[in-house]
Amino acid sequence: MTLPPTSVPRARHDAVPARRIFALDGLRGLAVTAVVAFHLFPQQIPGGYLGVDLFFVLSGYFITGSLLNRRASGKPVLKVFWLKRARRILPPLLLMLPVALLLAALVGGAAGSRLLPQSLSALSFSSNWWYAISGQGYFDTAEPPLLQHLWSLGVEEQFYLLWPILFIALAALPRRRWRVLLTASMGLLSAGLLTFFALNGHSDRGYFGSDSHSFGLFFGAAAAFLGQWLNPRLAPWLRSSAVLILLLPLGYLLISLSERSWWAFRGGIPLVTLISALLIVLLSTDRGLGARLLSISPLHWLAQRSYGIYLWHWPLTVLCHQLIGSSVPWATASVVIPLTLLASSLSWKYLEQPLIASGYRTAWRRCQEVWRQRPERRWQLISGLTAIGMIGSLASVATLLSPQQTELQASISQGQQAIAQQSQLPAAPPSSQPATPPSGKPPAPASSKPRPVSGTEILAIGDSVMLASAPQLLSGFPGIDINAQVGRQMWDLPALLQQLKQSKALRPVLLVGLGSNGDFSPTVLEDAQRILGPERRLVLITPSGPRDWIPQARDKIKDFGLAHPAVKIARWDEVRAQVTDFASDGIHPGQQGATIYVSCIQAALRQN
Fold it and tell me: For the residues 49-75, what does the mean pLDDT come to?
């Protein structure tokens, strides 16, 4: 989220264009628009989160271009580079942080919790690692943290510390293609790590990790090395045509590639960065229709303020969701968008632009001149410094006093603790009698009343809804084996069942409570039933809550139950009206709701 380099004299053949490229500004404006649209309308613009990856590619390109220009002109590289990064990144961040923290403390609730670790990780540019370790998924919409968006700043700043050192080594190579290949290889390695973590059920770790989410920065750096070699070899008409062709898939993916898509973490996100890198190379010298479309003034205006927009829009979104709820996105957008544009414009005009043009020393000298030569304006300096000090002090106190867990987190933690305590007790032997004999036909009942199912016969697989209900499940089904995880998706089920089957951990009854985190293909349930075999019973809990994908997931579960009479359906969605203690997201039940959740499952198990 840094601005393109200002004009620098070109000196040698390996420097990149030093002029401002308005088409690339347009890409930056497009990226910040996509991110804001995703956070305000995640169901309508499911691919908007990819705007962050477009930012990464642009940053890698501009940073490497700046380093190439400094090297070509014989100027120092490391010291000046790091000082310029600090001058660009720190002031707007230090303005946003105390204001956002103070507002969050005043609003309270989930927005006003966990402020201390968030602020410390933000100031140390390690937010991405804190969120990876804390288990707070980026796409978890239940109670998102106030400063979660600063994870990307952590990835960038860590890259900025390492890359100039690697750049010096790469720039010393005699052939430009070696620089391109080695830099691109580092990007491919990072992309491979993202896929590795996703395949092993750790998508959030892959998404937040600097090692596994730096591929966009590396591909952007490779684009800077590649541009000077490739562009002179392309005819203008071919370059312009390629720009238009690449804009189509990039725009489509920015709108439609949901994080819940099976291939998003398995090549989809890296593909977006590769397309972006090649597009940036072409746009750096293109004058065709695509470049002119991206050079329009509204996108340029947004690009100039993109860093401030990114910093301010997310805390304002979280605060609005806390105050008015997230079920009416247009109401949130009508508040967030004007306030974001106002805050970012003021930051750009009075803070960022003066510091970019003059630096810290010049700004300090001007303050001293005002103090000495214009006594009538001293009160403005005093008032400004006093306001800054008060806001910073109040924000610090509020941060230290903020609760370290939200109510929902506390509920989930209690569930995890209850499961852990249960696992430490001597395990009762599970029933060896299958719920359905190998013939696939249920046994003839000894009476008109079906045999009750004991907890030792049940393996429960679920997400955070099941975790929040774990104490009541353990009470209602003594001996039940609960395998629940925050953020788990239905499409994780077949692979998990296969692992459990190989380790002989399956039980006669499988209880599945998934679908709250995303839609899925019906083939997932077919695969799960095939893995279970005819000797085990399958019980599915319908998801329930105010999310756009939940009705589709619920209907697929019910349709599967109609098509497979042996599968029992616990209709959690039909009893939600009886629940009075849902969390603020309307998905996770409290103690009263969890009791109803268990009763719903017991009713399903009693079905003939």
Answer: 89
Max CA distance (Å), the chain: 100
Residue 81 vs residue 56, higher pLDDT = 56
- Say if CB 17 and CB 287 are below 8 A apart: no
Q: For 89-98, 186-195, 280-289, 362-371, which range has the lowest pLDDT when averaged over its residues?
A: 362-371
- Which residues pair with residue 318 across a beta bridge? none
SS3 label, residue 481: strand
Q: What is the pLDDT of residue 438?
A: 46
Q: Please, are residues 334 and 40 in contact by the beta-carbon 8 Å criterion?
A: no
Cα(224)–Cα(61) distance, rounded to whole angstroms? Answer: 5
**How would you list the strands of the sheet with 509-513, edge to edge?**
481-484, 458-462, 509-513, 537-541, 568-570
| Geometric angle at alpha carbon 463, from 50 and 600, rounded to 5° | 135
At 510, is the secondary structure helix, strand, or coil? strand
Average pLDDT of the chain, as a whole number: 86
Q: CA–CA separation, 171 vs 222, rounded Å?
A: 12
Q: Which residues pair with 462 in a beta bridge?
A: 484, 513
Which pair of structure tokens corresponds to residue 283?
Answer: 């746009």
Q: What residues are paired with 569 via a beta bridge?
A: 540
Q: Which residue has the higher pLDDT, 181 or 446?
A: 181
* Separation CA 319–CA 476 (nearest Å): 38
Q: How many residues does the chain have?
A: 608
- pLDDT at 133 > cutoff 90: no
Is the separation of the CB atoms in 145 and 131 below 8 Å?
yes
DSSP output for 331-342:
HHHHHHHHHHHH
Please give the single-letter amino acid code of residue 595. T
Nearest to 507 by CA among 582, 564, 432: 432
Pairing assessment for the beta strands 458-462 and 481-484 based on DSSP bridges: parallel
> 273 by DSSP, 3-state: which?
helix
Q: Spell out the residues 6+ positions from residue 293 whose beta carbon is closer than 8 angstroms to its own.
A: 26
Residues 479-495 pLDDT 10s? 999 999 887 889 889 98
Question: What DSSP string describes 187-208?
Answer: HHHHHHHHHHHHHTT-HHHHHH
- Greatest mean pLDDT among 338-352, 514-528, 581-595 lies in 338-352
pLDDT value for 425: 61
- Asked whether residue 253 carries a pLDDT value surpassing 80, the answer given is yes
pLDDT digits (tens, 9 = 90+) for 327-371: 678 999 999 999 999 999 999 998 888 887 777 777 777 777 777
How many Å apart are CA 151 and CA 79, to the nearest integer?
25
Q: Give which of 412, 399, 512 is closest to 460, Cα–Cα.
A: 512
φ, ψ dihedrals at 446, nearest 5°? -70, -25
Predicted pLDDT at 450: 59
Please check whether residue 228 is in contact with residue 16, taking contact to mean a CB–CB distance below 8 angstroms: yes
Contacts of 190-193 with C-beta under 8 Å, sequence gap 24+, read 190/214, 190/215, 190/218, 191/215, 191/267, 191/269, 191/270, 191/273
Enumerate residues 6+ apart whose C-beta is below 8 A from 522.
Answer: 556, 559, 560
CA distances for 573 relative to 473, 513, 541, angstroms = 18, 12, 9
Question: What integer pLDDT is reported at residue 341 of this predicted model?
Answer: 97
Nearest to 572 by CA among 455, 468, 416, 418: 468
Q: Which of 174, 164, 181, 107 is nearest to 335 (CA)?
A: 107
Pick the closest to residue 343 from 363, 320, 321, 313 (CA basis). 313
